[in-house]
Amino acid sequence: MTQNQGSYDASQIQVLEGLEAVRKRPGMYIGTTSVQGLHHLVYEIVDNAIDEALAGICTYIDVNIHSDGSLSVRDDGRGIPVGRQEQTGRSAAEVVFTVLHAGGKFGGTGYKVSGGLHGVGASVVNALSEWTRVRIFTEGKSYRMAFSRGEVTEELQEDGVSGEHGTYVRFKPDAEIFEETDFDFEILQSRLRQQAFLNAGLRITLTDEREESENGGAKSASFLYEGGIRSFVEWINHNKTPIHEDVIYITGEREDSFVEAAFQYNDGYSENLLSFANNIATTEGGMHETGFKAALTRVLTDYGKKHGILKDDTKLSGEDVREGITAIISVKLVDAQFEGQTKTKLGNSHIRSLVDATLTDKLTDYLEENPAVGKAILEKSVQAAVAREAARKARELTRRKNALDSGSLPGKLSDCHETDPTYTELYIVEGDSAGGSAKDGRDSRYQAILPLWGKMLNVEKARLDKVYGNEKLMPVILALGAGVGDEFDVSRLRYGKLILMADADVDGSHIRVLLLTFLYRFMRPLIEHGHVYIAQPPLYKLSRGKQTRYAFNDAERDAAIEEMSGGDAAAKGRIDISRNKGLGEMDPEELWETTMHPEKRTLLQVQLEDAVAADQIFTILMGDKVEPRREFIETHAKYVVNLDV
């Protein structure tokens, strides 16, 4: 045993006081210190204002990104209490911003329903900010206080008379904590729009002082939806083709619990079901989703049999009746039980029966009163059942050919030696030429290569039965070894990283989008669990004598030119600059050094941060409607790299 390990006794046990724990381990409270964690700070403050709206008080929320890098949230709720808090002897407002697990949502009468259940929001934001300033308007007076990195710098004090009510919080994220401190307008806009949909009649405004609008003044967006989640469904479906005009809307309540659901079917093949509990997105579902799915399947099956639309031997599965559905389920309840601080799955069992009973009664009545809608939905469900059976037969045929169950691999796959998916990588490479270079340049211990050629099936316009046997997609399915569609099992995955490597041109971009569409629609857990990456080959190769540099964008190219020339104008002219037009033109050594070497390559991880936005992007880019795609291209053309090809 080594003697120089140091002592380990009571003196080694450290107690982190107050908000020190938050600054020491921020990931425990906001998940990450990346851009995602940065925006989580905003959500914590906004959610407190939303809780005021749930209490029936707040009518507007103004979010402002300031030019100095700070952000403020103003609401017209009741204002944080300013009186003395008995347990601590300090003002309630100070306690809210400096003490973890302190708030009015732990069973008192302040909030009947709320999303912020853990009481860590405001204090965590304060702890992770360079400075925080608070103004409170309540009982005809205004108050102010200030903090720095969780510590009080200005005690709560009255600073005037005011007829307003509500709270104003302004904070500047701490650069010592966060990797990035610039707020993203688009990310915030997406989240705030969602909250406006979920709270009918609440106006939410986002303003960005850093950027000027086309009409002059600061860039801004305002959201107010009197239709609530019905408007949400219409907005999601606006680039799709509905099979019935009206959005079906049902509501129900029991004691202190309330449910509302809105849904509409379109002619597509994807299910888009979003659920919320107390305005918190329950991305992993829960009891409210279980009740909705069970009732929907039962009601549609009973209606189809009663009216002769379904034959006696026809059985509809849950997947059949949800094909093409866009649905929003929102429940409000006291003492919501979520799984952990992430609040991604609702566990209250009584909500299942409430949702089930409400949907059963209201949807049955609706279908009887709207037979044309009922017939359209049932006919689509029957077509889905037929396609599902065709997919089953195609799957079985594939298995009989020893492709799926025997563990056989596609012929063009150059596999790796390692079998533990923790360490393995599969590169899907565009074209045989690039595949050959990648095969020769890789580290065969853990890197596998699968070349694909030509354009593949656009699955946005196809059901699963068209996927089986497809010569472009089946090799991907077989290589990954985890199945496809409702049979996909991420635990059977043969490779821990799936890396898409295509040329940096229009065709390469198209292939990436086709692959991502397939992965999102039929292997979505791959993306949700962080297994999908996009390789970034260099755009430029610069050579001068024996010097060689690679650049991934124009800025890096210009910096490399300065470095290689020493700033000498004549020397700059002797630098050979070539634009990499294709992976196949790079030799194995170049491909390894620039794109495949773990310590030198650049990989972009594909993450699913906003399911609504992701669904819309795939619908726009790969759907049937041309006009939305044209508008998207025109809007985003300024972000495209100028390809010298």
Describe the structure.
The longest helix is centred in the middle third of the chain and has 30 residues. The protein is α+β, with helices and mostly antiparallel strands and 645 residues long. It has an 8-stranded mixed sheet with strand order 5-4-3-6-2-1-7-8. It has a 5-stranded mixed sheet with strand order 9-10-13-11-12, sandwiched between helices. Strands 15-14-16-17-21 form a 5-stranded mixed sheet, sandwiched between helices. Helix content is 35%, strand content 21%. The N terminus is likely disordered. It is globular. The protein contains 20 helices and 21 strands. The protein has 3 domains: 204 residues, Histidine kinase-like ATPase, C-terminal domain (Heat Shock Protein 90, 2-Layer Sandwich), CATH 3.30.565; 165 residues, Ribosomal Protein S5, domain 2, CATH 3.30.230; 167 residues, Rossmann fold.
Brief synopsis:
This protein is α+β, with helices and mostly antiparallel strands. It is 35% helix and 21% strand.
Proportion of strand residues: 15-25%
Oligomeric status: single chain
Average pLDDT: 87
Using the 3D structure, state the CATH architecture of the largest domain. 2-Layer Sandwich
Name the helicity range. 25-40%
Largest sheet: 8 strands, mixed
Distance between the termini: 65 Å
